C-alpha cells in the first residue's frame, strides 16, 4: 500500500488558508446554529389523543349529517334511454341502427317525483365512455380554439387533424366525437324551455374559445364522428362543444345540456322528444338523461355524507376504545422500568 | 526512474520543459460543460433521469409536458454545475495568485524578476526571509555561513515548528558571486508525493568540486509552499515545478466515502426501481390487452388497424414515464443540502470549541455525518488523543538514584540540585544528553528569552527541564551547540544526527566536545531499544526496574545513554554512514542498519520520566460511549504497562473483579498461536457473563497473529468489545481498522499525530484531534475536533441527530413520490389503462421541487430527544447503530402509508367529484390538494419538536401551494386557468379536503398513539419522561463538571495495589514520527540487539522484501 501521507486529502492550495480561518474564527452563537430554537415538543398523552378523536368525531358526524341532508334535498330524475330508444326490431344490431339513416326520434316520459326548484339542470350521462383515454384526451389544439391565427396548429390532433391538407377547426378526436343527442322537453304538453346559454364555464367562453374562430372543415373527413357545428357561429358561442371539450376524468360522467329556469311541481309529467344520434352501442355505453336540482354541495351525492359519518364514527369508536384501554390498562408514560438496556455485550449482532 | 536536472542550464533541462504553472482547477472555459456533464452523468441516478427525460421528448408516449422532467433535471444539474464552477473559479483565482507572484531567478548569470509560473526546472531561485517557496528547490546557499536555514512547513504537513534545512556539503563555502554561475547535475527520483523523503545525488561541474557525488536528502530541500524564516536569504535550484512538486503530487481527490445510510438508500432505491419495472410491465401488458379488447370498440379513440412495429412498446413506455417519479429526482439534492447543514452544525457548535486554543470543530467531509451515529468501533490513539500531549518532566533516575520520588517533581528535588552543584559526572552527562540529544532549535525572542522550537513534546520537556536544572541550551549555530552550565559556556560540534524512526525507537547524536576534542555518542530512546545495547559491564537491572516503576505510574520513560568514541571508529563509521545516506533505494533501512553499528556498548546514564496528563473528560467520554454500545480499541505505540495503566484510568477497561485482561503475547509463531487460542477460548466462554473482557496484544504478536492466524484473530475481534494493542506501527493500526471493516463494522478512528494518518484514512470515519503533534491527523481526517471529549457530543448529538433526520428525510422523499405515483397508477385503471396522467405537467414538476421539499428540509432541525437526555441515556444510540430507523421494514411502513394515503385520496376524490363534477383538471387538482394536505399533516406528525421554522415551513408551504396555484390559475393560457379559483369557491372542495385529512391521518394517528403508549420504543419512553420530568432524568447523572475530573485524576484508582497514584502516560515517539514509516517493526521488543552478528544481517533480506511489499 503506498504511503499516502499528510496533506493528501486536502487541496493544499486552499487548505492552509482554511486552517488559519478556522483557527481564528470562533463560531458565532445563535439559537439556530446551536440548534436550540425554542421548540414545542408535544407528546401523545392519552388525554390529548382521546380528546382529539372526540373532537374529530364531534365535527365529522354533524358535517356528515348535514352533507347527507344536502344530498337528500337534491331531487334527481335519471332516465336511461339508450336501450329503450331503439325500436325493438333493431335491437339485435344496435350499431347498425344507430349508424343507419332511419329516423332516431324517440319519446320519453318522466314523472317528477318531488317539487323541483329552479334552476333545474339537464344533464346527459354517459357510462363506459373514456374521455380520459390517453389517445383521446390529448387530441386537441387549445391554440387553435383560442385564436384564428393558430388554426394551423394541429400537431396534437391526429388522426382528426386535417382534410385534404386543410386544417379542421376544431380539430382532434374530442371535438370530432361531439355528443349530438338532442332533447326537447315539454311539461304537461307545454314546451319547456331548456336554456342553453351559460352552460359552459365563463372562463372557457371568454378565454379558451375564440370569438372569431369559426368551424372549418368540421366533420368533413372520411368518417363522421359525433355532432356537427353550426358553421357561422363562433366557437365561443357553441357551448355544447365547450362543455364537451371539458373532458371528464371518469368513464361515467354527466355533462350539462341545459338549464330549466322554472320550478317543476310534484307529479308533473315531462315528455322528452329526443334524437338518439350518438353511438354508444358499439362499446355498450349507457346513455341517460338527468334532471337535477342542486344544493350547496352540488348534485345528489351521498358519498361525502356517508364518508363523513364513517370517519366520524370510527374516530368516536377509537376515542372510546382508547378511553377503555386507558382505564383498564393504565400505563404511566415515561416509566423508567420500561427502560432496559439489555444489549448483549460483544457487539450484538 | 530518475530525473536529471542540470543546474542553470536551459538547454539541457529543456526536455523536462514543465514550467511552474500550478493548476488545481478541474476544468477550463472550454471543457467545463462537456466534462462536468460527463461527470454528472457517470452517476446511475442521473443517467436514469436523463433517459426518462429523453423518452419524454417522444410526444406519443409522454404523459405530460417534457418540461416536468427536464425542468427539475436541468435545475439539479445547474445547481451542482454552478457549485463546481464556483469552486473551480476560486481554485483558479488562488492558482493565479500563486502563479503570478514575482520571484527572483538567475538566468545567464543575471538576477531577474519573473513570475513564479515561469520558473523552469534547473533555474536558480532566490528567496528572502518570509518568502514562500514557489517550487521544490534543492538548497545551494543561504545567508548563514554554515549553510543553514529555517523553514516553516505548516502548509505542507501542518507542523508549526521551524525545521532546519542545510545546504549540501558540496556547496559549502561557495562564494555568493559564484552561486550565479554554478553548473551541475542533480540526479533525483521522478516526482513523487513523499514529503519526507528525497533521495538524490548532486554533482557539480568544474570549476566547482568535480567528481564528488554529494548525497541529498529532504534536509537539503525547500519544498513548495513552505516559508523561509529566520534566514536573510536562501537560494536553490528548482527540481520539481508546477504540479509535479511534492505538494502538487500530494494533492489528490479523496475517495468519497459512502455512509451506511447512503448504501441503504441506494438499496431501497434499487428495490423501488425493481418495483417500478414490475408495475410498468404489469400495466403495460394490461394496457395492451385492454387496447385490443376494449379500445377498438371505443370508436372515438380511433385506434388504427395497422400499427407500427413499436405499437406494443408504447403503453409500457408511457407507464415507465408515469412511474418515473417513483424515484424522487430531488432526493440527492435534498440529501446533499441537509448533509451540508449537518456539517455546519458541527462547525457552529460552541460546545465543541476548544476554549484553550479557540479551535472550533471542523468537518472536512460533509457527507458522512450519519455514519457518526452508527459507529460501532472506535479505534483510538493514546498520546495526544486520550492524553494532553503536554509533557512535563517529573522524575528521573540517574545512576540508580531516584529523584523526584518524594514530591513528584524532580526539578524541586533538593537531592538532585545538590548533585548538580557538586558536579557529579553522571548527573552532568545526564543533563547534557537531555539538553543536546535532540533536534530542538532554540530561538531567542525579542525580550531575550530563549524559546525552544521542538518537533516533539518529549524533547521540549527534556530541554526545558535541563534548562531549569542549570544546563541551558542557549544557541544553535549551524553545527555548533552552545550550552550554558552554571554560567559557563560549553560548546559542542554536532557531527552526525542519527534520527529517530518509529522502528528504531531511539535517536542519537554524535558530537565533538570543543573543549577537549573528544567525540561522544549521546543516545536516548525507549528502554527496549537502549538497554540491550548497554555495555557489557553495566547492570541494567536498576534501570529496568526504574522504567517499570515509572511505567506503573503512567509516566513516559526514556533511557539516556552515552559513549565516548574513538576518532578512528568514528571516521570509519562516518564513511559508511555517508554511503548509506546517499543510496537511492531503501535508504532509510540502510541508515538504520549503519546506525545500529554505532549504537552499542552504551553507558546507560539513567531514565527520565515524563508526565502526560489525561485530557479533561476522557474517562467520562469513554464511559458514556461504551454505554452507548460502542466498542473501544486502543492502538498505541506505547509499552504494554503504560497502555494498560492509561486504559484503566480512563475507564477503558474495568478493574479486576469486573474486568479481565487477556494477554496475547509470544515471540514465536507457536507461542502466539497458543496464547491466541487460549484467549479465544476464554472469550467464548465469558461472552455470556456480564464481564468486561479485554485482550491485550503487542505489535509483534499482532504481526504473527495477522500473518498466520488471521481467521482466529478476526473472530477474537468480533467477540471482544475492548482491546489494547500496544507497540503497533502506523500500518498495523490501519490493518486493524481494515479487519474490523471487513467484519462489516462501522469504525471510527481518532488520533492526533502523523502516525495515525493511515488509520484515520482507512476508517469509515476519521477524526483528528487538532493537537500539539501538528495538524497532520486533523488534515487527513473527516472531522477535526479540539479535544477528545468532544467525541461524545460529535457522536451522540450530531451523529445521532443526523442519522434520525436523514432517516426521516429519505423515507419521506420516497413516501411522497410513491404517493403521487400510486394515484397515477390507480387512475390508469379508470382511464382505460392507457397511461393518462391525472395531474398536469406544472403540478407534477412543482410537486417534487416545491410543494413537498420545503417542509421536509426543516426536519434538519428536528430533535427527538434533547441533548441532555441523550447524554444521560447514551444507550439510545443503539437505535441508530442497529439502523432501526431506516431499514427495509421501516421503509415498508412508509410504503404502506403511501399506498394507504393514495387509496384514501383517490377513492374520496373520484367519489366526491363524480358525475357532473368529474372534470379532468378539477379532479386532478383536488387529488393533488389532497396529497399536499396529507403531506403537511404527515410531516407535522413525524416532527418531534416544533420550532417557529417548522410551523412556518409546514403551514407556510400549504399556503404557498395555494398561492402558486392561484398564480397559475390566473394565467389564461395555462391549462388550469381559473381552476383553483373555482375549486376554492366550492364548499365541496373544502369538505373533501377535510375528509381526506381525517380519513388519511386518523388511522395513522391512532396507530402511532397505540405504539407510542403500549409498544413504546426506548426513544418514546425517554420522550415521555423528558416531558413528564420523571425520575429518569435525575437518575445516573453522567454529566460531570470539569472540576471533578481533576479530583479523579488525583485519587488513586483501585487495582494494581503496587501503584500509589494514577498518572497519565507514557512513552511514544520521541519525534513526531513520519506517517510513511510504515515498515514493520524490526522484531520483538529488542529489535537491534543482535545486529552486530551477521546472522541478523542475512535475515534482513527478508525485511527488505517486506518493505517493498508495503
TrEMBL record, chain A:
<feature type="transmembrane region" description="Helical">
    <location>
        <begin position="48"/>
        <end position="70"/>
    </location>
</feature>
<protein>
    <recommendedName>
        <fullName>ALA-interacting subunit</fullName>
    </recommendedName>
</protein>
<keyword id="KW-0812">Transmembrane</keyword>
<dbReference type="GO" id="GO:0005886">
    <property type="term" value="C:plasma membrane"/>
</dbReference>
<feature type="region of interest" description="Disordered">
    <location>
        <begin position="1"/>
        <end position="30"/>
    </location>
</feature>
<feature type="compositionally biased region" description="Low complexity">
    <location>
        <begin position="1"/>
        <end position="20"/>
    </location>
</feature>
<dbReference type="Pfam" id="PF03381">
    <property type="entry name" value="CDC50"/>
</dbReference>
<dbReference type="InterPro" id="IPR005045">
    <property type="entry name" value="CDC50/LEM3_fam"/>
</dbReference>
<keyword id="KW-0472">Membrane</keyword>
<dbReference type="GO" id="GO:0005794">
    <property type="term" value="C:Golgi apparatus"/>
</dbReference>
<keyword id="KW-1133">Transmembrane helix</keyword>
<comment type="similarity">
    <text>Belongs to the CDC50/LEM3 family.</text>
</comment>
<feature type="transmembrane region" description="Helical">
    <location>
        <begin position="306"/>
        <end position="328"/>
    </location>
</feature>
<dbReference type="GO" id="GO:0005783">
    <property type="term" value="C:endoplasmic reticulum"/>
</dbReference>
TrEMBL record, chain B:
<feature type="transmembrane region" description="Helical">
    <location>
        <begin position="952"/>
        <end position="977"/>
    </location>
</feature>
<feature type="domain" description="P-type ATPase A">
    <location>
        <begin position="100"/>
        <end position="162"/>
    </location>
</feature>
<feature type="binding site">
    <location>
        <position position="637"/>
    </location>
    <ligand>
        <name>ATP</name>
    </ligand>
</feature>
<dbReference type="GO" id="GO:0016887">
    <property type="term" value="F:ATP hydrolysis activity"/>
</dbReference>
<dbReference type="InterPro" id="IPR008250">
    <property type="entry name" value="ATPase_P-typ_transduc_dom_A_sf"/>
</dbReference>
<feature type="binding site">
    <location>
        <position position="556"/>
    </location>
    <ligand>
        <name>ATP</name>
    </ligand>
</feature>
<dbReference type="InterPro" id="IPR023299">
    <property type="entry name" value="ATPase_P-typ_cyto_dom_N"/>
</dbReference>
<feature type="binding site">
    <location>
        <position position="638"/>
    </location>
    <ligand>
        <name>ATP</name>
    </ligand>
</feature>
<keyword id="KW-0067">ATP-binding</keyword>
<feature type="binding site">
    <location>
        <position position="459"/>
    </location>
    <ligand>
        <name>ATP</name>
    </ligand>
</feature>
<keyword id="KW-0479">Metal-binding</keyword>
<feature type="binding site">
    <location>
        <position position="752"/>
    </location>
    <ligand>
        <name>Mg(2+)</name>
    </ligand>
</feature>
<dbReference type="InterPro" id="IPR036412">
    <property type="entry name" value="HAD-like_sf"/>
</dbReference>
<feature type="binding site">
    <location>
        <position position="383"/>
    </location>
    <ligand>
        <name>Mg(2+)</name>
    </ligand>
</feature>
<dbReference type="GO" id="GO:0000287">
    <property type="term" value="F:magnesium ion binding"/>
</dbReference>
<feature type="binding site">
    <location>
        <position position="733"/>
    </location>
    <ligand>
        <name>ATP</name>
    </ligand>
</feature>
<feature type="transmembrane region" description="Helical">
    <location>
        <begin position="922"/>
        <end position="940"/>
    </location>
</feature>
<keyword id="KW-1133">Transmembrane helix</keyword>
<feature type="binding site">
    <location>
        <position position="383"/>
    </location>
    <ligand>
        <name>ATP</name>
    </ligand>
</feature>
<dbReference type="GO" id="GO:0005524">
    <property type="term" value="F:ATP binding"/>
</dbReference>
<feature type="binding site">
    <location>
        <position position="381"/>
    </location>
    <ligand>
        <name>ATP</name>
    </ligand>
</feature>
<dbReference type="Pfam" id="PF00122">
    <property type="entry name" value="E1-E2_ATPase"/>
</dbReference>
Amino acid at each position: 500500500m503506498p504511503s499516502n501521507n499528510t496533506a493528501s486529502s486536502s487541496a493544499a492550495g486552499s487548505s492552509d488558508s482554511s486552517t488559519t480561518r478556522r483557527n481564528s474564527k470562533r463560531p458565532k452563537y445563535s439559537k439556530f446554529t446551536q440548534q436550540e430554537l425554542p421548540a414545542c415538543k408535544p407528546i401523545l398523552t392519552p388525554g390529548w389523543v382521546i380528546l382529539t378523536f372526540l373532537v374529530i368525531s364531534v365535527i365529522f358526524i354533524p358535517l356528515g349529517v348535514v352533507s347527507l341532508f344536502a344530498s337528500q334535498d337534491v331531487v334527481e330524475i335519471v332516465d336511461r334511454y339508450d336501450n329503450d330508444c331503439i325500436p325493438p326490431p333493431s335491437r339485435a344490431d344496435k350499431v347498425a341502427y344507430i349508424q343507419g339513416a332511419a329516423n332516431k326520434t324517440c319519446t320519453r316520459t318522466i314523472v317528477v317525483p318531488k317539487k323541483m326548484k329552479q334552476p333545474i339542470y339537464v344533464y346527459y350521462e354517459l357510462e363506459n365512455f373514456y374521455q380520459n383515454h390517453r389517445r383521446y384526451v390529448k387530441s386537441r389544439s387549445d391554440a387553435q380554439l383560442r385564436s384564428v391565427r393558430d388554426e394551423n396548429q394541429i400537431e396534437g390532433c391526429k388522426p382528426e387533424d386535417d382534410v385534404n391538407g386543410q386544417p379542421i377547426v376544431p380539430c382532434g378526436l374530442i371535438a370530432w366525437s361531439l355528443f349530438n343527442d338532442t332533447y326537447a322537453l315539454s311539461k304537461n304538453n307545454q314546451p319547456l324551455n331548456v336554456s342553453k346559454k351559460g352552460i359552459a364555464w365563463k372562463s372557457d367562453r371568454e378565454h379558451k374559445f375564440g370569438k372569431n374562430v369559426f368551424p372549418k372543415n368540421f366533420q368533413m373527413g372520411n368518417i363522421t364522428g359525433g355532432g356537427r357545428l353550426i358553421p357561422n357561429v363562433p366557437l365561443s358561442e357553441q357551448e355544447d362543444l365547450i362543455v364537451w371539450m371539458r373532458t371528464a376524468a371518469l368513464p361515467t360522467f354527466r355533462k350539462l345540456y341545459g338549464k330549466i329556469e322554472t320550478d317543476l311541481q310534484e307529479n308533473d309529467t315531462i315528455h322528452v322528444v329526443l334524437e338518439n344520434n350518438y353511438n354508444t352501442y358499439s362499446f355498450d355505453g349507457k346513455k341517460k338523461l338527468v334532471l337535477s336540482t342542486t344544493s350547496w354541495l352540488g348534485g345528489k351525492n351521498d358519498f361525502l355524507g356517508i364518508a363523513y359519518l364513517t370517519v366520524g364514527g370510527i374516530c368516536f369508536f377509537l376515542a372510546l376504545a382508547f378511553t377503555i384501554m386507558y382505564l383498564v390498562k393504565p400505563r404511566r408514560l415515561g416509566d423508567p422500568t420500561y427502560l432496559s438496556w439489555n444489549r448483549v455485550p460483544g457487539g450484538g449482532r | 526512474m530518475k530525473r536529471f536536472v542540470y543546474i542553470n542550464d536551459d538547454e539541457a533541462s529543456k526536455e523536462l520543459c514543465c514550467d511552474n504553472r500550478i493548476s488545481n482547477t478541474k476544468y477550463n472555459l472550454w471543457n467545463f460543460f462537456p466534462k462536468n456533464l460527463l461527470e454528472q452523468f457517470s452517476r446511475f441516478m442521473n443517467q436514469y433521469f436523463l433517459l426518462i427525460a429523453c423518452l419524454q421528448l417522444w410526444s406519443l408516449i409522454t404523459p405530460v409536458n417534457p418540461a416536468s422532467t427536464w425542468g427539475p433535471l436541468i435545475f439539479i444539474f445547474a445547481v451542482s454545475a454552478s457549485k463546481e464552477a464556483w469552486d473551480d473559479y476560486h481554485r483558479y483565482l488562488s492558482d493565479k495568485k500563486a502563479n503570478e507572484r514575482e520571484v527572483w531567478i538567475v538566468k545567464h548569470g543575471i538576477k531577474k524578476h519573473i513570475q513564479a509560473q515561469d520558473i523552469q526546472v534547473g533555474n536558480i531561485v532566490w528567496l528572502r526571509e518570509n518568502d514562500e517557496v514557489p517550487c521544490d528547490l534543492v538548497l545551494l546557499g543561504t545567508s548563514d555561513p554554515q549553510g543553514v536555514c529555517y523553514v516553516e512547513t505548516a502548509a505542507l504537513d501542518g507542523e508549526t515548528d521551524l525545521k532546519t534545512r542545510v545546504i549540501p556539503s558540496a556547496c559549502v563555502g561557495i562564494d555568493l558571486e559564484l552561486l550565479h554561475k554554478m553548473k551541475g547535475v542533480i540526479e533525483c527520483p521522478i516526482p513523487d508525493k513523499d514529503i519526507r523523503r528525497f533521495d538524490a545525488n548532486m554533482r557539480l561541474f568544474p570549476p566547482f568540486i568535480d567528481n564528488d557525488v554529494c548525497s541529498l536528502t529532504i534536509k537539503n530541500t525547500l519544498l513548495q509552499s513552505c516559508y523561509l524564516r529566520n534566514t536573510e536569504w536562501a537560494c536553490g535550484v528548482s527540481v520539481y515545478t508546477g504540479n509535479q512538486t511534492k505538494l502538487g503530487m500530494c494533492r489528490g481527490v479523496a475517495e468519497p466515502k459512502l455512509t451506511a445510510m447512503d448504501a441503504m438508500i441506494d438499496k431501497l432505491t434499487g428495490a423501488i426501481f425493481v418495483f417500478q419495472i414490475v408495475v410498468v410491465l404489469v400495466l403495460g401488458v394490461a394496457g395492451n390487452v385492454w387496447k385490443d379488447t376494449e379500445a377498438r370498440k371505443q370508436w372515438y379513440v380511433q385506434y388504427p388497424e395497422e400499427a407500427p412495429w413499436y405499437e406494443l412498446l408504447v403503453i409500457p413506455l408511457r407507464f415507465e414515464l408515469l412511474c418515473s417519479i417513483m424515484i424522487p429526482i430531488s432526493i440527492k439534492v435534498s440529501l446533499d443540502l441537509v448533509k451540508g447543514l449537518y456539517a455546519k452544525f458541527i462547525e457552529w457548535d460552541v460546545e465543541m470549541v476548544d476554549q484553550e486554543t479557540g479551535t472550533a470543530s471542523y468537518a472536512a467531509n460533509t457527507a458522512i455525518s450519519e455514519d457518526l451515529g452508527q459507529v460501532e468501533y472506535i479505534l483510538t490513539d493514546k498520546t495526544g488523543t486520550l492524553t494532553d500531549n503536554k509533557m512535563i518532566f517529573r522524575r528521573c533516575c540517574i545512576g540508580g538514584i531516584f529523584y523526584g520520588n518524594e514530591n513528584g517533581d524532580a526539578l524541586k528535588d533538593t537531592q538532585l540540585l545538590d548533585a548538580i552543584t557538586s558536579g557529579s559526572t553522571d548527573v552532568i552527562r545526564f543533563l547534557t544528553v537531555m539538553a543536546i540529544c535532540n533536534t530542538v532549535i532554540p530561538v531567542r525572542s525579542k525580550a531575550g528569552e530563549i524559546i525552544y522550537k521542538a518537533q516533539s513534546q518529549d524533547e521540549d520537556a527534556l530541554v526545558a527541564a535541563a534548562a531549569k536544572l542549570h544546563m541551558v541550551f542557549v544557541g544553535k549555530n549551524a553545527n555548533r551547540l552552545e550550552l550554558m552550565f552554571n554560567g559557563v559556556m560549553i560548546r559542542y560540534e554536532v557531527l552526525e544526527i542519527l534520527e529517530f524512526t518509529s522502528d528504531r525507537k531511539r535517536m542519537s547524536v554524535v558530537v565533538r566536545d570543543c573543549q577537549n576534542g573528544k567525540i561522544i555518542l549521546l543516545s536516548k530512546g525507549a528502554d527496549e531499544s537502549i538497554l540491550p545495547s548497554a555495555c557489557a559491564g553495566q547492570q541494567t537491572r536498576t534501570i529496568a526496574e526504574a522504567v517499570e516503576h515509572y511505567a506503573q505510574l503512567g509516566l513516559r520513560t526514556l533511557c539516556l545513554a552515552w559513549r565516548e568514541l574513538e576518532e578512528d571508529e568514528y571516521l570509519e563509521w562516518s564513511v559508511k554512514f555517508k554511503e548509506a545516506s546517499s543510496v537511492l533505494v531503501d535508504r532509510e533501512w540502510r541508515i538504520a542498519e549503519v546506525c545500529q553499528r554505532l549504537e552499542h556498548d552504551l553507558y546507560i546514564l539513567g531514565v527520565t520520566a515524563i508526565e502526560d496528563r489525561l485530557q479533561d473528560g476522557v474517562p467520562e467520554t469513554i464511559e458514556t460511549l461504551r454505554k452507548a454500545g460502542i466498542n473501544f480499541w486502543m492502538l498505541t505505540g506505547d509499552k504494554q504497562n503504560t497502555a494498560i495503566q492509561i486504559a484503566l484510568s480512563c475507564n477503558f477497561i474495568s478493574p479486576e473483579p469486573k474486568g479481565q485482561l487477556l494477554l496475547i503475547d509470544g515471540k514465536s509463531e507457536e507461542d502466539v498461536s497458543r496464547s491466541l487460542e487460549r484467549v479465544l477460548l476464554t472469550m467464548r466462554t465469558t461472552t455470556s457473563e456480564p464481564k468486561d473482557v479485554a485482550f491485550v496484544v503487542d505489535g509483534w504478536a499482532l504481526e504473527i497473529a495477522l500473518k498466520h492466524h488471521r481467521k482466529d484473530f478476526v473472530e477474537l475481534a468480533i467477540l471482544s468489545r475492548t482491546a489494547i494493542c500496544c507497540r503497533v506501527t502506523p500500518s498495523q493500526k490501519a490493518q486493524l481498522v481494515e479487519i474490523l471493516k471487513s467484519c462489516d463494522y462501522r469504525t471510527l478512528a481518532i488520533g492526533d499525530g502523523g502516525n495515525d494518518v493511515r488509520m484515520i484514512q482507512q476508517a469509515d470515519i476519521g477524526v483528528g484531534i487538532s493537537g500539539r503533534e501538528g495538524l497532520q491527523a486533523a488534515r487527513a481526517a473527516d472531522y477535526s475536533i479540539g479535544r477528545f471529549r468532544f467525541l461524545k457530543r460529535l457522536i451522540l448529538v450530531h451523529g445521532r441527530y443526523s442519522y434520525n433526520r436523514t432517516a426521516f428525510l429519505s423515507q419521506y422523499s420516497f413516501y411522497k413520490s410513491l404517493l403521487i405515483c400510486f394515484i397515477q397508477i390507480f387512475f390508469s385503471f379508470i382511464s382505460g389503462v392507457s397511461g393518462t396522467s391525472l395531474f398536469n405537467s406544472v403540478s407534477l414538476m412543482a410537486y417534487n421541487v416545491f410543494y413537498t421539499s420545503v417542509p421536509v428540509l426543516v426536519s434538519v432541525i428536528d430533535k427527538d430527544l434533547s441533548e441532555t437526555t441523550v447524554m444521560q441515556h447514551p444507550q439510545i444510540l443503539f437505535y441508530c447503530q442497529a439502523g432501526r430507523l431506516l431499514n427495509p421494514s421501516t421503509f415498508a411502513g412508509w410504503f404502506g402509508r403511501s399506498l394507504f394515503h393514495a387509496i384514501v385520496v383517490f377513492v374520496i376524490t373520484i367519489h366526491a367529484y363524480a358525475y357532473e363534477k368529474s372534470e379532468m383538471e378539477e379532479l386532478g387538482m383536488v387529488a393533488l390538494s389532497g396529497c399536499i394536505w396529507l403531506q403537511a399533516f404527515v410531516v407535522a406528525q413525524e416532527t418531534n419538536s416544533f420550532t417557529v421554522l417548522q410551523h412556518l415551513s409546514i403551514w407556510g408551504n400549504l399556503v404557498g401551494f395555494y398561492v402558486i396555484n392561484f398564480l397559475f390559475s390566473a394565467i389564461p393560457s395555462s391549462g388550469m386557468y381559473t381552476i383553483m379559483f373555482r375549486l376554492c369557491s366550492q364548499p365541496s372542495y373544502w369538505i373533501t379536503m377535510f375528509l381526506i385529512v381525517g380519513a388519511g391521518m386518523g388511522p395513522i394517528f391512532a396507530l402511532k398513539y397505540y405504539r407510542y403508549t403500549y409498544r413504546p420504543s426506548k426513544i418514546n419512553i425517554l420522550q415521555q419522561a423528558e416531558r413528564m420530568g420523571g425520575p429518569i432524568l435525575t437518575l445516573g447523572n453522567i454529566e460531570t463538571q470539569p472540576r471533578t475530573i481533576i479530583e479523579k485524576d488525583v485519587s488513586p484508582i483501585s487495582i494494581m495495589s503496587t501503584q500509589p497514584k494514577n498518572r497519565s502516560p507514557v512513552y511514544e515517539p520521541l519525534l513526531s514520527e513520519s506517517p510513511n514509516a510504515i515498515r514493520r517493526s524490526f522484531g520483538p521488543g529488542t529489535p537491534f540487539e543482535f545486529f552486530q552478528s551477521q546472522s541478523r544481517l542475512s535475515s534482513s533480506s527478508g525485511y527488505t522484501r517486506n518493505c517493498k511489499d508495503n
